[in-house]
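Extended Data, panel c. Modelled sequence:
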Amino acid sequence: MNRLNINKKWDYSDALEATDHIILKEKYDLFINGEFVKPNSEKYFDTINPATDEIIARVAGANKKDVDFAVDSARRAFKSWSKIKAKDRGKYIFRIARMIQERAKEFAVIESMDGGKPIRESRDIDIPLAANHFFYYAGWADKIEYAFPNKTPKPLGVAGQIIPWNFPLLMAAWKIAPAIACGNTVVLKPAETTSLTALKLAEIIQESGLPKGVVNIVTGAGQTGAEIVNHPDVNKIAFTGSTAVGKLIERSLAGIEKKTTLELGGKGANIIFEDAAIDQAVEGIINAIFLNQGHVCCAGSRLFIQESIVNTVIEKLKDRMSSLVVGDPLDKNTDIGAINSKEQLATINKYIQIGKQEGGEIYQSKCNIPKKGNWCPPTLFLNVSQSHAIVQEEIFGPVLTIQTFRTINEVIEKANNTPFGLSAGVWTEKGSKIFKLTQALNAGVVWANTYNKFDPASPFGGFKESGIGREGGLHGLKAYLKFE
């Protein structure tokens, strides 16, 4: 019998997802008071496919008057939405969840076209999780009083919500579902580079019969978001994005009675002990850093390997990286898609150069990079220390730094030596180590023998410069309520 050559790289036939079933307009207006309306600014911007550099559609850019209109619509809708029967609120939210499921294939394709992520991730992670968040909070809508016994929960009013470009539909669901389940109304601003699935969600909201003004979606750049944050008639700000912008929001709201949740950057530690199931851990490393091209706030971008197994893990990791397919996001074989924008690609390349200049040993898997679009091969840095910029600062791309450790106390100290505190992973067969690490690591989420597992019932958020507050689960409800 011939032995299988494990180093052979398999050749896969193209398996492109069809696009003829999706419906996209050439131009998208703002969604305010249940209708699509032209922007007062009369300005539109291009949304571009990062894999092809082609323009997909033009999207409205909202100015201050547009934001005022959206907030006013949300305020008027709040008067009735906050008073309707809670079970009726749940029915609307449940209907939205079902409609997302029914159009899941269309949403997945648009998400990959607009954001660059592989279709397998959009299809199997983003869209199902988005629907599940609406399902989950639909169930809570008429049970909120039981969630907080001996208290009288009341909705806050108008929630201003700003979401990032890495998980556009999922982040919209994270924000909208708990807010409206609690009886609030919403003004949401998607990221400028990935607005399309939020606008398709607006179509579903319109078709679902949700009362006008309960959810308003305004598109635009940073200034549009600033208008929402600083609007005097917005009662709550929910922001997911960079730590730098989160700090600006905190400063602008200092001394103002406006509830805030901030889910910001991260520099997650992924810790591999010598007693771990190494092959399983290697798959976990790949998932932790290369999911969505590394465009994940909780990415396991710092790998710590116990010294006794470092050579074995790195050899297996490099071998596994060599099998990753970089290319067309709509190809079902693709593991790593396009970098979201040219600006983000420039940032990633800047950090790669810094890593080289600081003396790091770089390894990049050999892969065919398409001529058009924004691409970065999977990248490792060896021989780095705690003081390296690529170890301390969030890169938000497919770049992994590797360090070693000997003892559990050493790795705890190294893992916590960062301004961030969002996530971590622990790989070991010893439950005692897992319990010790979950207590000692300054991270809002610690995964054990897995990574990047999400559930609507589980709270998510960070410490230190990774944010304030939690989203998901009961914690996600509490963020949209006041107690009398």
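Residues 1-7 have pLDDT under 50 and may be disordered. This feature is highlighted in the accompanying rendering.
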